[in-house]
Amino acid sequence: MLKVIVRFLTVMMKHGYIGEFEIVDDHRAGKIVVNLTGRLNKASVISPRLNIRLNDLEKYTNTLLPSRQFGYLILTTSAGIMDHEEARRKHLGGKILGFFF
């Protein structure tokens, strides 16, 4: 589960919504310390993880994101965890993990 969270945060960092983050090992579940940049309005997970085909991607982006210009859906695909724009470029569908804007 930690690996999925780290990849989710990496996608957010790539798009400039968060700064650096570090994993703190407290010999229990562990903690992640995230530096916020002030650009993040909302981040949420989708549970249960829904299967999304490539042609259904537009429907989910319109439903979950406030506008076309900003915000990203995070998908887990056969090629790894990525945002919806990268999945569209690679012609991949997958399961939706969450979104942020």
UniProtKB/TrEMBL annotation:
Pfam families: Ribosomal_S8. GO terms for biological process: determination of adult lifespan; translation. One of its GO terms (cellular component) is ribonucleoprotein complex. GO terms for molecular function: structural constituent of ribosome. Keywords: Ribonucleoprotein, Ribosomal protein. The keyword Ribonucleoprotein applies. Belongs to the universal ribosomal protein uS8 family. This is Ribosomal Protein, Small subunit. It comes from Caenorhabditis elegans. The lineage of its organism: Eukaryota, Metazoa, Ecdysozoa, Nematoda, Chromadorea.
